[in-house]
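Need the bound structure for adenosine-3'-5'-diphosphate, inputs here:
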Amino acid sequence: PLRQQVTASNGSPTPTRQLPQAIIIGVKKGGTRALLEYIRMHPQVRAPGSEMHFFDRHYERGIDWYRNQMPLTSGSQITIEKTPSYFVTRDVPKRVYQMDKKMKLIIVVRDPITRAISDYTQARSKGRSNRDFHEMAFYSNGTHRLLDTSWGALRIGLYSQHLDKWLKYFPLEQMLFVSGEELIHNPVGQMDKVQEFLGLTKLVGPQHFFFDSKKGFPCLKRPDAQMRPRCLGKSKGRQHPHIAPDVIAQLRDFYKKFNQRLYSIVGKDFHWM
Ligand code: A3P
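Answer from helper R.:
Posting the output first, comments after.
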């Protein structure tokens, strides 16, 4: 939709709330918070700090409610939001399409096995589970140990299947796949791609990042040298439990064909094999 231009009595455009032009739709535990914080360093980007969950949980509140959650933007600023559950929620592609079929979609993907362990670690830390990873991941049919793909932590990692649902509504050119691994090891490289995709001048660059070896992740330098640099909080970059190699091997085997399919649709190898 076109920007609504509102002019104040003195003739200058007043800031207004706009529906997003781009959404980070997933994936949960892929590095979506890091990406949002990085892109928010850009002066032409505004984004709400929390996840809106409009297209999945609060859709009945209507589009005006959604717009009202957005921060004020002026001039050439764009609005972005991130809600990682969108990527895996059935009705969301259609709803986003009905709002804006030109929406730009950003998906941070990460090795589905690491992602599953990260998801599990989060659930444990929130007290939502006290069972071991392998107890959650497997069930037995009497003779074989089978993967329980109804477990969310495993299901979310079937990226190619979720993507199929989005491709019914949006062309690939409207999507950007960010590698969650590269986002950690080369944030600048991924941010170049994100800024280009959003049609922004490359203003977020190497000067904004430093690698904090204690945290083990990139952290942000602030524009003002007096301000303390900022790392993401304790809930980002948790220690993962050790998972037995045979469990990992079975997961590798399971995800292989889904990963390959993602690589071939997207035209990029994420090197998870
Ligand atoms: P872990 O906590 O399992 O390491 P999301 O924000 O989508 O929930 O993703 C969380 C993941 O982002 C973290 O998972 C971590 O690996 C990754 N990440 C990427 N860049 C990060 C950063 N700069 N600081 C902390 N975590 C980061």
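Comments: The chain has a mean pLDDT of 94. The longest strand covers residues 104-109.
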